[in-house]
Write a structure and sequence with these properties.
8 helices; 6-stranded mixed sheet; 377 residues; alpha+beta
Amino acid sequence: MSSTELRRTALDATHRALGATMTDFAGWDMPLRYGSERDEHVAVRTRAGLFDLSHMGEITVTGAQAAELLNFALVGNIGSVKPGRARYTMICREDGGILDDLIVYRLGETEAASCHYMVVANASNAQVVLDALTERAAGFDAEVRDDRDAYALLAVQGPKSPGILASLTDADLDGLKYYAGLPGTVAGVPALIARTGYTGEDGFELFVQPEHAVELWQALTEAGEGAGLAPCGLSCRDTLRLEAGMPLYGHELTTALTPFDAGLGRVVKFEKEGDFVGRAALTEAASRAEQNPPRVLVGLVAEGRRVPRAGYQVVAGGEVVGEVTSGAPSPTLGKPIAMAYVDPAHAAPGTAGVGVDIRGSHEPYEVVALPFYKRQK
């Protein structure tokens, strides 16, 4: 494969047969939408949607000191994650800048497999994370393995997803908590069944061998037919996560920001034993954030119809007070919405006089608390 050739998932032919509009995403040829992205978004909010997320980067960490390595390499306390559970965390540079946000699964219930973890990185950062973990593994009795080609990843999301999946598996879905994963069989296919989600809805992620991806997609499609399951692309995944106030790397999270700048200082666990990469810089960042609060990530809801985009300036009283990180029309609210970092003085919900500079015109926006949407449980 040439360096310019896009990678294709095991479901590539399936997407094309469904008439998907394909796009280059982090070097992968991925489905952007199959028809109307609004319809796909509404399907996930009201029924269920089926996603191909095989572009995500799986990295396996094993060995007697796997937990110690991850505690050193990442900002979270991975040693305290119990088997079958998952944790949201970050990997930072020595200067505290965010390299990526991650989900780490601890796999295996037996003593022999007790030091077995799967780190899931964003597609755009998978190689960076792999390289950093490999470098940081020096001196630890642990192995870091690139397993990006070992998995296909399907996700079924939405209020009807538990019923759809339950019809195909004997796994205890009721007992599968949020941010957990268990091995099981779905439609006869061995899978790691996880429940993390990136849409604001209940749902499941299914890690399977690539050769089983097509049969599993077809089984889920058939099982979801009566429930209104729809195939969904990356476009609606973005509007769903935006409504749910979930950060996207490259937008709300970058190497220019520490977790404290991003309002996610809670993921940094200073109380864990031993040193970790970025500890000194993050200690300073935490202290700095306390004394001089950084810009705050807020929600903005348009009063008009113009859509703000990443990089647009947030203004108040003729001054620039922030910057939009993500923006799109919200199918659920029926208005354009955005996430933006703004000065603390303008961050309180209901703050008056805030606008977004859209091509020279200051469009009025309401400051709201995140998320824009929260599902009824």
